[in-house]
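User: Okay, second chain of the day. Same drill as before: sequence in, structure tokens out.
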Amino acid sequence: MSSLTLEAPVIEKQSPTWLVGWEVEPTMNLIVNYEIPIDEDEAESYSEDGKYVTEEEYWAKYYEHPWFNYEWNNGYLEELSMSNHLEYTVYRWFMKILDQYLEICRIAEIIGLETGFRLALHNKISVRKPDLGIVLNNNPMLLQNMNRSYNGIFDICIESISASNKKSIQRDTVIKRSEYEAIGVKEYYILDERGKETAFLSNVGGIFVPLPEVNGVISSNVLPGFQFRVADLYRQPLLIELAKDKVYQGFIMTEYQQERQRAEQERQHAEQERQHAEQERQHAEQERQRAEQAYLRAEQERQRAEQEQQRAEQAYLRLEQERQRAEQAYLRAERLAAKLLALGVTIEE
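Assistant: Same drill. Structure tokens below.
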């Protein structure tokens, strides 16, 4: 295949902005290289990924570019890819639990919003903009409120992979990993909504090694007590659900947990009071039953005494009747004896 270079007309360059590239012309079987001057304002709408610029030019023109987000790798611009919604939700969920942790454990500051830092490595210089950077309070270079870049080395860098192209994936998983490792970043977290490249790394003697995963839980060596379940990156439970999970109870919605504990204590206290009142009621009921049983026993005793009295009265009446019958019999015998005596009949005793 032959090639032909089509050069633009010779023009006095008013600015250093040129559109450079190549394309294939299939109908002519040619490779066409082009270098076309474009207006400075028009250049704003074109990506300059891969362009060579000095570090001074990068900081002056490209670090805060209005249309494109560039990092700088040893002289070359690297455009950062855009995230999709799923990638953003993983990133947002992780940032939420980090914010919750740092609200409770105020041992570090977190920064995002495309804030970059300079990596002066032994073989090159780069400027990187981690999606999230964490600076411990004991870092010799603290974050400055009004600075638009960070002049130290982040203790933790967090990157959310954009899987839109292999170049972006390689930059986060290979190039930045090597750079962060060499410059002394203590921990490096790679978030991948696909789960393919997700990694949580700790810098041990200048080499990144995976943080141990125990029962699916990762614990940071840099942020004491900060831990999370890897599966939750993709499930993304609500904070109120995490507050009930032992993995997160040390830092998620602690005020809610305290209120919940107070409410539970008050509920238990109310339940104890209810149980105490119920016991008192049962005790009073038992006393009432005992008193009623005592009354019933007394009533039974009264009834038995009354029955005994009635039986005694009945026995007395029977005896009285027997006495009366005996007396009547005696009187009849006396009258009979008197009549017989009057008739001259003697009755031998």
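The two ends are 178 Å apart (CA to CA).

User: Thanks, on to the next one.
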